[in-house]
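As the next step, I selected for study a record pairing a protein sequence with its backbone structure tokens, which the following lines show:
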Amino acid sequence: MNAFLTVCFAIIAALFASVGQAGAPGYVAVMSLFGHGSGVIKPVALALTTLVAAIGVFGFHRAGLLRVRDWTPFAVLGIPASVIGGLIDLPPSNFRGAMTVILLVAGAQMAWAARMTPQLDARAHNKPPLIPAIICGGVSGLLAGITGIGGGLFVAATMLLLGWTPTKRVAACAQTSNL
């Protein structure tokens, strides 16, 4: 079973990385399907997400898409909030319910963003607004800590929905939010 999970994780990492994400929702879903509890899921998903995100951040930096002003506001509250969220352990039924909702919404949002990329880029601003980005980072960090998935999923969804930056820079910023 461990070899099968390893293959699943590699496929998930490759698929999510191809759209600028680190794969945490996929890792969580697969481990949940195999009956692992949040005590195992959260640290494993965090480790895998951090590894894939680090590779992504390096690639986005080399491509000139990683801008300090894009990601730093999210880190201000996101980092401490993720630590606090990591200390919160939801009961298994609540954890599964929360993850089901997050995964369904994330999947729908990714499909929508993929179809709307030209329109999203046309209306995108040059940088995220400072105070809303700091607040978004805090909320994203807290949710990331509670669920064990990287904050990049929540940051990307917010940035795309509100048109804070073009889509490629959203992906770069999301990767930094997963570290």
Notes: Residues 2-177 form one domain.
